[in-house]
Write a structure and sequence with these properties.
The protein has 237 residues and is an alpha/beta fold. The chain is built from nine helices and eleven strands. The longest helix has 17 residues. The relative contact order is 0.17.
Length: 237
Amino acid sequence: MQANKIQILSTKLIGAALVGIADKQNICIDVAPFIETEDVVSGDMRKRIIELSKQNIAVIFTSANAVNAVKKLLPEKPSWKIFCIGYHTKKNAAETFDEKNIIGVADNGAELAEEIIKHPSVKRIVFFCGTQRRDALPEKLKRNGIELEELKVYKTIEKPRIISKHYAGILFFSPSGVRSFFSVNKINKSVQIFAIGATTAKEIKIHSQLPIIIPEHPDKEELVQLVIKHFSTIKSF
């Protein structure tokens, strides 16, 4: 029965397939998004993106939200050299563009900058990002003489909600989602926290001193598998 399942809260949409995988392992994942994203592409930016689509340039996507915002404006598939962060962003970019165009992938901004620097032909790059983008990537590129054009194509909107149900674990996916959650909630000491990556974990530590479990790669599927592994290990004792 549902009441006997281990109760987990995901603070972001993760898809029915992952919820189903967890459910088969006696884990019920409730999904309650604490942020929303909204495209912020102006008329001038629309024209600029169309211009760029005709050029053989290098571009950066650090989230699937940026890919989604840009692909709506492209008249055809551009021949861009694409660098991106994370499996989910790569997957989204591969579905939108040709996978052969993706020439660099990393788990975070600093590592992606290192990957870009390894390509000496990249002297200029366009960064499609959100309004709350992190500094590590652009600053490292600029320090290494790479010209950067930033186009902020979406914004993140915090959507706090009070959670009254007790959960055995909570999944966090971004610093903004963490801030939104903790703006109206506190976590009981018995709760296990899971974070998609180090940047999200760093924000969690501002609000809580509880232990945090982080996957090797910032991937939703890997995070859910960690949840399953963690609670199956506890049950085995």
